[in-house]
C-alpha cells in the first residue's frame, strides 16, 4: 500500500473567495523568508497534497506545477535578510504574507493563515489555524509554493557559498551548517539577529 494522505478540507467558507497563506524559512539561519498566497477552485483536489514538511522534495516539485496550473491565482513573495534583522523574523513573516496577498490578481474575501498569529491585512477578515497546512487545501498549497520557491532560491545561493551546503540544508541550523559556520564564519546571507552558534562551540559547553 502507498502512503496514506489525509483528505484536506477544500474550503473554510463555501461561498467566499478564500486565499490560503503560509510561509517558509522562518526558523532558518540564512536566506530570506518566503510566503505564498493561493486561491483555489472549490473543487480542487490532489491526493498527495499535504503540509509541505510531510512530503518528499520530488513530490513537492510535482505539486508546485499542479497548483500553479489549477489555482485560480497565486503569488509568492520574500523578505530579505537585512529586513529580517531590522524588523525581526515574526514581522518579516507577516510582511512576506502581506506582499504575497497584495500580488494576487483577485482580491480575496477571506484569508486562511497557517499558525496562531497574524497581522491583519487591510480589512480582509482572516482566520489563524494552527497546523492549517494539514487541514485546508489552500494553506497546504501555499506551503508547497513557499517551500519550493525558497528551496530553489537557496540552491542558487549554494553555488556562490558551497561550503555551507545550502543545496541540502536550505539554510536551516543543521549540525553540518553550524560546523561550516564555525569553520568559515557568517556571510552576508546569514541572519545576524539570530543567536547563531557553531556546532564546534557546543563541544566546549
From TrEMBL:
Cofactor(s) recorded in Swiss-Prot or TrEMBL: Mg(2+); Mn(2+)
Protein name stated in the entry: Ribonuclease HII
PANTHER family xrefs: RIBONUCLEASE H2 SUBUNIT A, RIBONUCLEASE HII
Record keywords, A-Z: Cytoplasm, Endonuclease, Hydrolase, Manganese, Metal-binding, Nuclease
Function in brief: Endonuclease that specifically degrades the RNA of RNA-DNA hybrids.
A GO term, aspect molecular function: RNA-DNA hybrid ribonuclease activity
Reaction equations catalysed: Endonucleolytic cleavage to 5'-phosphomonoester
Chief subcellular location: cytoplasm
Compartments reported by the entry: Cytoplasm
EC numbers on record: 3.1.26.4
SUPFAM superfamilies associated with the record: Ribonuclease H-like
Domain RNase H type-2 positions: 16-205
Residues binding a divalent metal cation, per UniProt: 22-23, 114
Keyword S-adenosyl-L-methionine attributed: no
Cofactor note: Manganese or magnesium. Binds 1 divalent metal ion per monomer in the absence of substrate. May bind a second metal ion after substrate binding.
Amino acid at each position: 500500500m502507498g502512503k496514506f494522505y489525509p483528505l484536506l478540507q477544500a474550503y473554510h467558507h463555501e461561498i467566499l473567495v478564500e486565499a490560503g497563506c503560509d510561509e517558509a524559512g522562518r526558523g532558518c539561519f540564512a536566506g530570506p523568508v518566503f510566503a505564498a498566497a493561493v486561491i483555489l477552485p472549490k473543487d480542487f483536489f490532489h491526493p498527495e497534497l499535504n503540509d509541505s514538511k510531510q512530503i518528499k522534495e520530488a513530490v513537492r516539485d510535482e505539486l508546485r506545477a499542479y497548483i500553479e496550473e489549477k489555482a485560480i491565482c497565486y503569488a509568492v513573495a520574500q523578505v530579505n535578510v537585512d529586513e529580517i534583522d531590522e524588523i525581526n523574523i515574526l514581522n518579516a513573516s507577516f510582511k512576506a504574507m502581506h506582499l504575497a496577498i497584495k500580488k494576487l490578481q483577485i482580491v480575496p474575501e477571506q484569508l486562511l493563515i497557517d499558525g496562531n498569529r497574524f497581522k491583519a491585512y487591510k480589512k480582509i477578515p482572516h482566520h489563524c489555524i494552527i497546523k492549517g497546512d494539514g487541514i485546508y487545501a489552500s494553506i497546504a498549497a501555499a506551503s508547497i509554493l513557499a517551500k519550493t520557491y525558497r528551496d530553489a532560491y537557496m540552491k542558487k545561493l549554494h553555488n556562490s557559498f558551497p561550503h555551507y551546503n545550502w543545496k541540502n540544508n536550505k539554510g536551516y541550523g543543521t549540525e553540518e551548517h553550524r560546523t561550516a559556520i564555525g569553520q568559515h564564519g557568517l556571510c552576508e546571507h546569514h541572519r545576524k539577529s539570530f543567536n547563531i552558534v557553531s556546532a564546534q562551540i557546543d563541544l566546549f559547553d
